[in-house]
Amino acid sequence: MVYSLTYRRPASSKASTLSVGSGDSDGKKSYDAESTSGGSQMSHGIPDALSFERIISGGTCPPCTVREFLNYLKYIELAAENLQFYLWFRDYCKRFDALPDREKALAPAWTLEQAEAESHAQARKAKPAPEAAVIFKGTDFADGRRAPDGDLTPYGGDSTPNPQTPSVHSKFENVDNSSEATLSDWQRSTTTATTIDPARAAEAAFESAGEKVQPFAVQPYREEITRIIAIYIAENGPRQLNLSSRERNVLLRALAYTTHPSAFRDVITTIEWSLRRQAHPNFIRWTICNGNRPRVIFARGLGIFLIVAGIVIGILLDLSSVGRGWRVFSALAFLIGISTMIAAYKGMCVVLHGMHHRHLRPWELFASDDEPQLQEIFKESPESLQGNSFEDEPWVAKYDKRNVVRKVFDREVWIEEPAMRQIQDTIFLQSLLGAFVITCLFEAVFLAVPKGKFF
């Protein structure tokens, strides 16, 4: 039996379907997130080999695996909650579909009609007074507003859009931003299992949504859903999702009625849209950078030095009495320096690229063998009751103590993903082509100057 959760995307893309199947014979998840052109249209310029579906399904190699994707969201964008919840939901759909029919019957599906009726009820509760409607008419706070680009928001209907949290980059790996970023205000501090009671947190969340009747305890996975509410849905949860009040209330009313995966229909739509349109393209662009920030700054400095050296050599040859042909020797410094600068602008070090290597990330340098496996991240475990704050992790202090020279020449590893190597090869060739054109312009100027014959 297959459950299909159909949802709407923005007007720029077609409708998609989340299918919960029975699973493959080898134990892999039978879960398809089908979108236009296999998801590639959601991430312009990204090859199909690095598409969102391929990464999530485990069809890529380091540094483009789900583990690296999750680490990027945790340490760089500071927004790992969406992917953690998405991975849990995929696993939950598979486990729910594997239940016997008699257990599935205890948790009926949450239909579209029920969801729309509940959404309209929440909208009526949140409808502003007539005086306020007049004041906000024509502004972004008016009802039924549209996104700035004119497309309907991915939340559907007349619900108030949930603005996406802007990406905040970590000070450890942001090679394109010189300012050090700090944790955003909404980043939750670490909450241990001894300071949170999932049952009480879920009960308070249900009451805040106006649901006084306790959910049916006999429904399958009710205890797990209680923990998920306490972690991801409840106010001030350790991994609270960025949901609007209306979305949260509709979801809680659905979860009070059933534990069927269809109860998460609207929320998973929002989360997947954010992962596809924002997190995934940002992750691929960030992964292209093969060097850490000190190494890229060093590469930029080296490029500037070579360009200045080329200018000095050209001037000295113009002032000398040697033949014009000798002036071409300055072109070598120009070509190497300009190509190095262009590649460094993209976050690449040409030396590392020549070996198809990359620097280990700060959290990879001090990784221990007892780290939880990926499957433990989104399954029910004590670690899931903790937030995503990493300031207290041991590697932070250890990395800060490393001197700049050691950071420039940090440990390197081979880039295993062929598609990523191909992207980097393309960028390197583009930098060489751009450097060749600019070098020709410089040499044309030097060759046009008559001999100085000063020495």
UniProtKB/TrEMBL annotation:
It comes from the Eukaryota. Coiled coil: none annotated. Residues 1-44, 138-168 are annotated as: Disordered. Residues 33-43, 159-168 have a biased composition (Polar residues). The keyword Transmembrane helix applies. Residues 140-149 have a biased composition (Basic and acidic residues). The keyword Membrane applies. Keywords: Membrane, Transmembrane, Transmembrane helix. The chain crosses the membrane at residues 297-317, 329-352, 427-449. PANTHER family: RGS DOMAIN-CONTAINING PROTEIN. This is Regulator of G protein signaling superfamily. The lineage of its organism: Eukaryota, Fungi, Dikarya, Ascomycota, Pezizomycotina.
